[in-house]
């Protein structure tokens, strides 16, 4: 067992961490199903000099379970500026997911007739505009749709199933669009989706807002900078190292995290999380790639405490 590779003092610190965080301790379970065993295993694989920092970062880790989703959404919703809600005639709530839009057609016909035929097929083919399923925003919204009736102005709520239909009836001067996600990291995904919505003049920063359970401050700022859209969340986090420690100590701790990453062979282009987001979060048993990879990196033979639930080739 990996327990033998750790001193008694480290085992005690892990036990205290799990007790304080309310995390389940199930050492009798197999590695892949026991958070406790996976955590111990990860701790044994990183350099001893970095273990105190790993424990410290773990103490600030946000592990959000499915039972907390509606509570966090409700807290974020309560922070929305009241003017948005009172002035809206209808409030449309949609998950923050990419619209499935048909890619631009290329006309490669060898002659004019073939080019014309390709063009006719292109303009008469019905475009796809449906919301992808099984995304995190979709899962959050499925919970909200069950519980939402206690929220202020919930009588105005509409949860459209068809984007094309929704777009045709949305009143840009009277209605409000709320895009929902579980987590805002770098802001890249949100900005890309907002760009899709804002291609039509119906949607703009005055009638569109974002609600997230938890957000990174850098992502919120990136969204406001690019689209001037307001983001409301229950929990707002800064980068866990660069914004948390004094500069000299932050630089030292970044080097330690990089040592940890190297020891378990993390993907280098996601060092410190996507775009150096330095997040510490796992939602509904899945970590976003913005989270430090020392917590989620895994392979077929290497279990992670807070995995991303991906298929791995190695």
From TrEMBL:
Per the record, the domain of life is Bacteria
For this protein, the record's SUPFAM superfamilies field holds: PRTase-like
What are the PRTase-CE domain coordinates in residue numbering?
89-301
Put simply, this protein is called PRTase-CE domain-containing protein
Which classification does the entry list for the species?
Answer: Bacteria, Pseudomonadati, Bacteroidota, Flavobacteriia, Flavobacteriales
């Amino acid at each position: 067992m990996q327990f033998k590779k750790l001193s008694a003092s480290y085992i005690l610190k892990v036990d205290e961490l799990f007790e304080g965080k309310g995390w389940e301790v199930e050492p009798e379970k197999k590695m892949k199903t026991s958070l406790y065993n996976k955590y111990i295993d990860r701790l044994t694989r990183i350099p001893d000099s970095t273990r105190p920092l790993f424990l410290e970062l773990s103490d600030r880790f946000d592990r959000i379970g499915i039972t907390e989703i509606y509570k966090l959404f409700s807290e974020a919703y309560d922070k929305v500026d009241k003017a948005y809600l009172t002035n809206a005639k209808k409030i449309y709530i949609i998950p923050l997911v990419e619209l499935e839009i048909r890619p631009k057609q290329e006309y490669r016909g060898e002659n004019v007739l073939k080019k014309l035929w390709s063009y006719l097929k292109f303009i008469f083919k019905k475009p796809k505009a449906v919301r992808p399923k099984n995304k995190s925003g979709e899962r959050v919204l499925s919970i909200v749709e069950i519980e939402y009736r206690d929220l202020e102005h919930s009588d105005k709520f509409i949860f459209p199933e068809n984007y094309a239909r929704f777009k045709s009836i949305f009143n840009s001067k009277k209605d409000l669009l709320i895009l929902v996600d579980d987590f805002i990291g770098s802001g890249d995904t949100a900005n890309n989706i907002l760009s899709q919505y804002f291609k039509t003049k119906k949607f703009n920063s005055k009638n569109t807002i974002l609600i997230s359970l938890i957000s990174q401050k850098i992502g919120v700022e990136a969204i406001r900078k690019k689209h001037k859209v307001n983001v409301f969340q229950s929990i707002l986090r800064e980068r866990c190292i660069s914004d948390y420690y004094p500069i000299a100590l932050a630089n030292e701790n970044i080097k330690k995290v990089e040592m940890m990453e190297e020891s378990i062979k993390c993907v280098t282009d996601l060092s410190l999380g996507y775009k150096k987001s330095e997040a510490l979060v796992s939602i509904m048993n899945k970590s976003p790639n913005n989270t430090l990879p020392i917590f989620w990196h895994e392979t077929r033979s290497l279990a992670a405490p807070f995995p991303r639930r991906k298929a791995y080739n190695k």
